[in-house]
């Protein structure tokens, strides 16, 4: 069995999305132009470039080394938690939420091997932190990238529109860290924490290309920029290309096509369209609620066809990324990386109250 077949066998979300694409293609035939429109090459190209370059930054080893030096200088579990929450939020705004978790959660597991820390609670807090931090940036998560590209606003305008929501979520999480984590002393032996070798050319090259990729997205050149990134990657940093989660890109492609086709069905258009998406309250509450059912990226893909206020929709689906674990792929990634028993149940003990509180607070601001 090939690696692709093995991954597909265990990736139930991708299986469902591919089945949706095939079934809709069989029972509701559409011209090829519609499929290309639903595929949204501009957004998919942007995701491709960002995943390749953030993988390059990760593989350079500098972020891991800097993070370990930071946490080894902290005195207590609460200080460690606050530092990791802030680091997770910062990285997610720059390197996307899933890539941030691939950096932070393994670091947390490494610290857990050399010190007594509340590991499960730390991983849960990190998952909530990347959802909050990625809200600040148009490139922080896939739904932001999608809605930014379709909204037509500038990078700065998108940041200004979503920053208050991200700030509210992050402040609530930081306040929650006080009762979640004790202030007991933390004893770390830095020599026992394994760090990756650093690669300065890879770090500098990937960082510069990442800046260029963001500029290309801003100016509408996502597809040619992604082609340049792939060509340079094949020539100079093939390990980064090999480390990219290509199945994740296939998942997004299937999601765009399947949900785009679903939204175009007359019966779906009639029922969802009848909800009055011109009302900001419907957009906000509908985005949060649908995220709990199908995750926030599919919710953004589907609802972008109905609501005129894509920035408010972005706020809604980012808030909706918390709550149930399925609300965001980042949640599922964090829980999978931890892998310990019953962490899913414990995640919901924190995430559901977090969603309820932040949904009210952000709603008071967003719907004012």
Ordered list of secondary-structure elements with their pairings:
Blueprint: H1 3-10, H2 12-27, H3 32-39, H4 41-59, H5 62-71, H6 77-95, H7 97-112, H8 119-134, H9 142-151, H10 155-180, H11 200-219, H12 222-236, H13 238-243, H14 246-264, H15 266-273, H16 280-294, H17 296-303, H18 310-319, H19 329-338, H20 343-366
Helix pairs in contact: 2-14, 3-14, 4-9, 4-11, 4-12, 6-7, 6-8, 6-10, 7-8, 7-19, 8-10, 8-19, 8-20, 9-17, 9-18, 10-18, 10-20, 11-12, 14-17, 16-17, 16-18, 17-18, 18-20
Distance between the termini: 55 Å
Main beta-sheet annotation: none
Quaternary state of the chains: single chain
Calculate the mean pLDDT score and round it: 87
Model description:
It is globular and about 60 Å long. 77% of the residues lie in helices and 0% in strands. It contains 20 helices and no strands. The N and C termini lie far apart (55 Å). It has 368 residues and is mostly helical.
Q: What are the salient characteristics of this protein?
A:
368 residues, mainly alpha, globular
Task: Give the structure's gist in a few sentences.
With 368 residues, this protein is mainly α. It has helices spanning 3-10, 12-27, 32-39, 41-59, 62-71, 77-95, 97-112, 119-134, 142-151, 155-180, 200-219, 222-236, 238-243, 246-264, 266-273, 280-294, 296-303, 310-319, 329-338, 343-366. It is built from 20 helices and no strands.
């Amino acid at each position: 069995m090939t690696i692709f077949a093995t991954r597909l066998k265990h990736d139930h979300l991708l299986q469902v999305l591919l089945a949706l694409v095939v079934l809709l293609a069989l029972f509701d035939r559409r011209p090829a132009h519609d499929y290309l429109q639903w595929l949204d090459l501009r957004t998919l190209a942007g995701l491709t470039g960002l995943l390749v370059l953030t993988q390059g930054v990760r593989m350079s080893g500098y972020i891991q080394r800097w993070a370990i030096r930071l946490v080894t200088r902290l005195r207590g579990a609460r200080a460690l938690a606050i530092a990791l929450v802030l680091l997770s939020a910062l990285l997610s705004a720059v390197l996307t939420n899933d890539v941030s978790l691939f950096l932070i959660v393994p670091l947390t597991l490494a610290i857990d091997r050399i010190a007594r820390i509340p590991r499960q609670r730390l991983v849960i807090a990190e998952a909530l932190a990347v959802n909050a931090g990625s809200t600040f940036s148009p490139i922080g998560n896939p739904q932001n990238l999608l809605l930014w590209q379709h909204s037509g606003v500038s990078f700065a305008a998108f940041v200004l529109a979503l920053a208050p929501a991200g700030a509210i979520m992050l402040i609530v999480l930081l306040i929650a860290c006080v009762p979640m984590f004790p202030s007991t002393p933390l004893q770390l032996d830095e020599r026992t924490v394994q760090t990756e070798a650093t690669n300065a050319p890879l770090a500098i090259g990937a960082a510069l290309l990442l800046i260029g990729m963001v500029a290309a997205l801003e100016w509408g050149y996502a597809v040619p920029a992604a082609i340049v990134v792939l060509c340079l990657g094949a020539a100079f940093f093939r390990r980064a290309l090999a480390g990219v989660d290509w199945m994740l890109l296939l998942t997004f492609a299937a999601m765009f096509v399947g949900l785009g086709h679903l939204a175009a069905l007359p019966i779906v258009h009639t029922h969802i369209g009848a909800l009055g998406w011109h009302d900001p309250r419907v957009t906000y509450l509908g985005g949060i609620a649908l995220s709990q059912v199908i995750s926030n990226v599919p919710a953004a893909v589907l609802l972008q066809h109905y609501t005129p206020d894509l920035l408010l929709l972005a706020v809604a689906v980012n808030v909706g990324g918390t709550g149930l674990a399925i609300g965001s792929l980042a949640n599922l990634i964090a829980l999978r990386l931890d892998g310990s028993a019953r962490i899913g149940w414990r995640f919901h003990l924190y995430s559901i109250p977090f969603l309820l509180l932040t949904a009210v607070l952000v709603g008071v601001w967003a719907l004012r």
